[in-house]
């Protein structure tokens, strides 16, 4: 009999409890051992919950109970989550997590700690919600040198773009919809400023390239400045605006990681990813392009990935967890400013020489939209010197 404790009864934690209960028989069969939810740790009270008899308020109970084999960490944030994860691993319990902030900052250390204690630390739900991506990337693509990762990994941002385009509603209203659906973080700043996407890129990159990329090494631009006018310009050239995370391997072993909104052609599979859906394209030197697609946020999709990790932890078929990551390599990060692209530029007034003028339905005053040829951001900034720039968005080619 395997006993599970959930720490943090928010959107994802409550989804895990629900799936463990509703799909219990199948989950136990697949794990090869009956699985029972024993504790739920939360500082809040849930007297009307169907799981009311399982709530506790102190972690010591879980830590000291030898019956608990797997701890599910769905608290989020770093401080308490790090302390409880360390204590659980040291007590010989496997930990399963959806916490991208914790993994992006301390993943390497926690994987090492798990291996030292002969348990596993798994975090499939930390990237792409319900999409199986980390284990396939770590195991099924292990034969490849990874050349590039390019993905839409924030459901909230993608939902906002879709609602702005399809319903013509402004940014703030679309964000409220994402919050109402349980997609956004408690503080949605991390979603709309790109930090959540940055953390997920760090996890993907660390697994793909084998060394720990840290969030502060990833130039990150969020989506708060995108307007309906930008969406209209994108539409006029058969494109959509998407918040992409990208990490491109250089021939010298360096990588160029960045997070920023992009114009993406609607003919590209990423251009057609709508609503809360995420998609991640991974390019391997042997296999070529592989696409992962599915619901990137929300209670049950994310809980589905957590529960799959519980089963994996019970079966211990990945005893060492993911391929281990080495320490950070600060000298191997290439700056995105030097990565050449075409650019969309919106000007309040004036022209942009050598660029193509775009048409849009909602042009105000003397505003105009332009598409440049390929150039680095450094060269683009020089071109824009002295002009009143309303928007600059990279184009994915
Ligand atoms: N706030 C996150 C998102 C939740 O919208 O993608 C899933 O990680």
Structure description:
It is a single chain. The chain is α/β, with parallel strands linked by helices. It is built from 13 helices and 15 strands. The strands form two sheets. The protein has a nine-stranded mixed beta sheet with strand order 11-10-7-8-9-15-12-14-13. Strands 3-2-1-4-5-6 form a six-stranded parallel beta sheet, sandwiched between helices. The longest helix is centred in the first third of the chain and has 17 residues, at 100-116. The radius of gyration is 22 Å and the shape is globular. It starts with a strand and ends with a strand. The mean pLDDT is 95. It binds L-homoserine. L-homoserine (HSE) is lined by residues 129, 154-156, 183-185, 191, 196, 296-297.
Record keyword descriptors for this entry.
single chain, 397 residues, alpha/beta, 9-stranded mixed β-sheet, 6-stranded parallel β-sheet, 15 strands, globular, binds L-homoserine
- Ligands, deduplicated: L-homoserine
The CA-CA distance between the termini, in Å, is 52 Å
Number of E strands = 15
Unreliable stretches (pLDDT < 50, length at least 5) are none
Tell me the structural class: alpha/beta
- How do the strands line up in the largest sheet? 11-10-7-8-9-15-12-14-13
Total of helices? 13
What order do the helices and strands follow?
EHHEEHEHEHEHEHHHHHEEEEHEEEHE
In round numbers, the mean pLDDT is 95
Coarse shape: globular
Helix content estimate: 25-40%
Largest sheet data: 9 strands, mixed
Determine the strand fraction and express it as a percent band. 15-25%
Radius of gyration: 22 Å
Structure summary:
35% of the residues lie in helices and 23% in strands. By secondary structure, it is an alpha/beta fold.
